[in-house]
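Protocol step 6 of 9: fold each sequence in the batch and record its structure tokens directly after the sequence line. For illustration, a two-sequence batch is reproduced in full.

Sequence one:
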Amino acid sequence: MVNGVAQSVNDNRVAEGFSAAAKNYHQHDRLQKMSAACLFEAMQPTGTLLDIGAGPGTDFSQFEHINQVISLDLALGMVEQVKLSFPQYQAICANAEKLPLADNSIDSAYSNLALQWCSDLSASFTDTARVMKPNGEYHLSIVAKDSLAELDTLGFRVNGFRSKDEILTHVDTAKWHIKAARVQEITVYFPNLKALLYSIKGVGASINANQVSTDKIRGRGDWQKIMARAEKLRCEQGIPLTYQVAQLCLMRISD
């Protein structure tokens, strides 16, 4: 099914950051687990399932009608973790914008909080359509606009994400039927500011487009002021960090 080896990665620094986080990823992936649970509720995958931006791998064992899982990620470290944790999966190091897979070879597709790092989202959707069989469903989530508002409140610089509507402009409606599209607010709570910030770094995301800038933090005094502001955000569950997650269900249209 694979038409060659790994594709070149557009940004090696992105791949290196996620690779470095691979071994300890599951210590910090609370958001990813919550988002995956939302996707799983709507999924009925069958046949060969492609997991795009798979990270260290996802357990799909609850789905009875999957024959094969192909886990694809641009970070070699993540792919190596998939091989260790899910040796039954086919693990591929490749870019989501150029899939090393044959046309019409995939029955179902899944992507959880990965495509926000994709520079050419249109190319990713188009190439996924190429490998999907007609009527195959693609369930995915993408971090969306207005996420991480608490970091902005604390004075960190956070670059923006695409809105749901902007994400949908990258979907070619000649190839995909948009069955569902919504934004789900997901809030994760942390015992302290350090844990909150490390939840981003710990999954490898801090070196990406949404990098938190600490350029203006100079010494202990600045950190104490930020921690004091963070404490004002605290509620019963802890210090919140809120994500807006675009959740889509697309169905491949017959050519």
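Sequence two, same batch, same settings:
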Amino acid sequence: MKLPQVYIVFGANTSGGTAKPGAQVLGLEVLCRMSPTPDKLRQTLRHFFAHETVHSFQQDAGMTLARDPLLTAILVEGAADFIAQLVTGEEPDAARAAWATPREAELWRQMQADIALTRTLTDKDDPEEGSPEAKAYARWIGNYSTPPAGWPPELGYWMGLRIWQRYYAAAPDKHAALRAMLAVRDPRAILAAGTYKRRGGSL
């Protein structure tokens, strides 16, 4: 695979990064706002380079959100964070992980309920603002500036990361597991393989 071109721009203060096949665009004004020191900016740039590169390859693989839109979005973002973590050796968002780890069981239950609620949607649907489906989706994805009360933003990224961590750990062929992260062909099978389990049994 050929690495994508990287474009660093001053944008509209709305996006830190986005990707299409062969290219990624990073919003410098957002990344600088997230990074109070030069060292933090370097760390942020490394993460975004890796994360958005994964998305450019996912686009090349033809992945869509046509099935299980919330679950697929969680797996797509989680895969990008998981591979970025492999590349950089750093937790993508340490504060978010610290908040979520002791709450993983309750978060898992809420995520499963929200996935079931949004399962009938497709990537062409636009659920009515304020509807249960819209709230369920927005609880996990696309809420960087407006997370649920008391939650860190974009918690779906962390949940997806955790699913892929378990999936990867159990996979006998690690290269095949990484390829699965770029394609996300069977979201429900991936979820089953990466299911959260309490110590001593299932959730």
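Proceed to step 7 once all outputs are recorded. Observation for sequence two: The two ends are 38 Å apart (CA to CA).
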